[in-house]
Amino acid sequence: MQGIESAGLVRIVVEGPDIRYEPLVPLNSKQLSNLDSFLSALMKLHAICPLPPLDFCMTLAPSFDRPLLLQETSIPIFAVSKETHNKKVVLIPRLWNQNRELFFQQTFHSWDQKINKAFWRGGPTDGPYGFFDWSFRPRGHLALRSRNFSDLIDARFVPSQLSDYPIDYFKQLKLLAPFVFPQEQSIYKYLLSLDGEAAPSSFEWQLFSGSLIFKSKSNKIEWFYQGLKEGEHFISFRSDGNDLFEKLIWAMRHDNEAKTIAEKGAYFAQLHLLDEEAFVYLHHLLNRYSQLLNKQSLP
Q1: What is the mean pLDDT of each run of 10 residues along the chain (299 residues)?
Q2: pTM score, whole prediction
Q3: Which of 17, 40, 15, 36 is nearest to 27 (CA)?
Q4: 9-15 sheet: strands from edge to edge
Q5: Which domains are delineated in the chain?
Q6: What's the confidence (pLDDT) of residue 84?
Q7: Alpha carbons 11 and 77: distance in angstroms, whole number
Q8: 81 partner at 20 to 30 Å CA-CA among 65, 66, 166, 220?
Q9: What are the Cα distances from residue 224, in Å, to 11, 34, 76, 266, 281?
Q10: Backbone φ, ψ for residue 16 (5° rounding)
Q11: What is d(CA 101, CA 109) in angstroms, rounded to the nearest whole number?
Q12: 3-state secondary structure string across 33-55
């Protein structure tokens, strides 16, 4: 099936004290790293609060939304991101980093220490970047427009995440900049969260940063999105970015209101996104899934 080779599918079986796994397709190095971290988390959870017998499939790719794959899939697939209409994917926490909690805590800077500017770094993962159409992609459009608003925003691509073809052209347009670690990004008051091929993996750590998050409107979701409220925990903007600069100016002119939203976002993260809450969610999910499997196996 076209596309299945990059889906990173793995079967996981929990039986008594044992947890086994079986890759269903070849896994790349990043997917193997994700699998190692997830299995470590699952083993910790199983040791703390034993899981029932389980047999499930998960993807180690950013998402499992391709229509052809979904059409040929007859079982639920566990994933960290999905489109809202996708009924075949079950959302799980992004447990790809064994030190995720320590990492989250290191991203925080107090509001008064932050640089009064918006910031984004990333790759062109929101679609193919052809020579004539790249500027219509949300990330490309934002990076290009931000050149005219350099006092408001610094949004550029990381060269290592680009294919060879557009690098020279993007250099001429001054759209490239070195990779910046999240701990350094969070020194900015405003952080941007933009979809790629899936929901942005940065959104989770950004909420811990104490910065005000501007998130593009999207039909892509993660396990915790239902608890968030736009305007209370973050500010949303159109996917084409045409209202972003107006909203940035509002935040800069209303610093107290902006700080309050940022604080509520960080409070939400501390309350709901640390390891304990992620483990509780996953435990409830896997128990419920086991119950459904048992019902289906009854005569």
Answers
A1: 78 95 94 96 95 96 91 93 96 92 87 96 86 85 90 91 74 91 95 94 95 96 97 95 94 98 97 95 96 70
A2: 0.92
A3: 36
A4: 18-23, 9-15, 54-59, 77-79, 89-91
A5: 4-98 (no CATH), 105-272 (3.40.50.2000)
A6: 95
A7: 10
A8: 166
A9: 24, 19, 19, 14, 10
A10: 60, -135
A11: 16
A12: HHHHHHHHHHHHHHHHCCCCCEE
Q: Would you state the pLDDT for residue 296?
A: 64
Which amino acid is residue 180, in one-letter code?
A: V
Pairwise CA distance, residues 146 & 192, whole Å: 12
Question: What are residue 233's phi and psi, to 5 degrees?
Answer: -110, -20
Among the listed residues 126, 127, 114, 90, the one whose alpha carbon sits nearest the alpha carbon of residue 206: 114
Residue 113 is predicted with a pLDDT of 93
Query: 15-24 long-range contacts, Cβ below 8 Å, gap at least 24?
Result: 15/53, 16/53, 17/46, 17/50, 19/43, 19/46, 24/57
Q: What is the amino acid identity at position 43?
A: M
pLDDT for the residue numbered 82: 97
| Residue pointed to by tokens 């405003």 | 190
Which amino acid type is present at position 170? F
Amino acid identity for residue 103 in this structure? F
Which residue in this structure is represented by tokens 């062109």?
124
The owner of tokens 């019902």 is: 295
Report the pLDDT value the prediction gives residue 4, as an integer from 0 to 100: 80
